[in-house]
Design goal:
Strand content: 5-15%
Shape: globular
Number of strands: 7
Helix content: 25-40%
Largest sheet: 5 strands, mixed
Length: 220
């Protein structure tokens, strides 16, 4: 791992620990979060190669499936990728384009794509611009940890968790509490389906995504 990537991981570890000790604070959308029927926010980010990319690039010629990730070390997201990779062909057959949005910088995102064998583009949003625009929220303690006995300020447990996963592909980084979300956006840039996870493993059924994509493709 080169020095730049190592420095990014160290900073991402530190962010995770701060969030872990603090606990979730943004469990409700601030203001009016976007819903079905609203225009999808068109945020400019960069891809894993640091090339500029707008979210609208993915719905310009047909429906888009936007996947907002938790942190790159989340085991639930590892499970979701296994499921999604098996279903991507079905989504692609409808003419939809899938794109993921993650919290990592391009260097960490490239490593994430390699480790997880990701076959769709992953855009980089370390500043949380797209997350904020789409009203992505943090989960409550039960939604993220279930029956784990978490206490605010518990440094001993936080350091123990970090150490146990530090040298694995489930390294704890970035926001400990952020919930994922998946959206389907039509070619007209209007949100057709909004699935904000209620807990970590709240994966949207493939049939629901396919149904939303068909609606997005239907004539007005």
């Amino acid at each position: 791992m080169d020095d730049r990537l190592w420095t990014q991981y160290e900073a991402a570890d530190a962010r995770w620990l701060v969030q872990w000790l603090r606990g979730p604070t943004r469990t409700r959308p601030e203001g009016s979060s976007v819903q079905v029927g609203d225009p999808a926010p068109d945020v400019e980010l960069v891809d894993a190669e640091s090339r500029p990319a707008r979210l609208s690039d993915f719905w310009r010629e047909g429906p888009a499936h936007l996947f907002f990730l938790r942190h790159y070390g989340c085991p639930c997201m590892k499970e979701r990728w296994a499921q999604l990779n098996a279903d991507l062909a079905k989504l692609a057959e409808t003419g939809a384009r899938s794109v993921a949005i993650g919290m990592g910088e391009p260097e960490r995102t490239r490593r994430f794509i390699e480790v997880r064998s990701i076959s769709i583009p992953v855009l980089c949003d370390p500043e949380g611009k797209a997350y904020d625009a789409y009203g992505i929220i943090e989960g409550t303690v039960p939604a993220i940890l279930h029956d784990f006995e978490w206490k605010p300020g518990d440094q001993e447990t936080g350091y123990k968790l970090m150490k146990s996963r530090r040298e694995t592909d489930l390294r704890l980084v970035d926001n400990a509490w952020l919930l994922p979300a998946e959206f389907v956006v039509g070619r007209d840039g209007v949100i057709v389906h909004a699935h904000r996870y209620q807990y970590c493993e709240d994966f949207p059924p493939t049939a629901v995504l396919l149904g939303a994509i068909r609606v997005a493709r239907a004539p007005a």
